[in-house]
Amino acid sequence: QEGDPRAGRRLAAGICSSCHGRDGIATLPEAPNLAGQNPAYVAAQLRAYRENKRQNEQMNIVARELTERQITDLAAWYAAIEVTATIPGR
Amino acid sequence: QEGDPRAGRRLAAGICSSCHGRDGIATLPEAPNLAGQNPAYVAAQLRAYRENKRQNEQMNIVARELTERQITDLAAWYAAIEVTATIPGR
Asked: Which of A16, A30, A71, A77 is placed for a possible disulfide with A5 were both Cys, Cβ 3.0 to 4.6 Å?
């Protein structure tokens, strides 16, 4: 199932961005950046949090309320953020 | 404890890069990108995998062998990769 990044963006603005950042670059050191993250990975983690297979107090609470559609929308949104990676010089 | 990104780079080349990419952009859709990831987050996840508090068959095996020093070195390496995030236009 393909997620809708525009729907994901709206949802993320409400429930994800305070920790994970508007652009998917986290605002808290203990939270991961999600910009450009693989959508299959993000969706799998949200399902794992929802089912308490992955443990994190905050995320277990947030994910409990998510529908499958919302999960794929969120994954599509974070995947739509383009990231570039630059390895440091020696 | 501050990690050594150069030591982390060498270790990552051997045990992480086949899935997570030389530059921290994953080569497998089910693996997360690690480029520029928050070091406290990466270290916490490696410890959780090591202690089987977070479950993933591959990662539980890999992390079991890691020392605390190696964990902070790996976290420092991925944090040293500079990332930029660009939000898509509407």
From this structure: A77
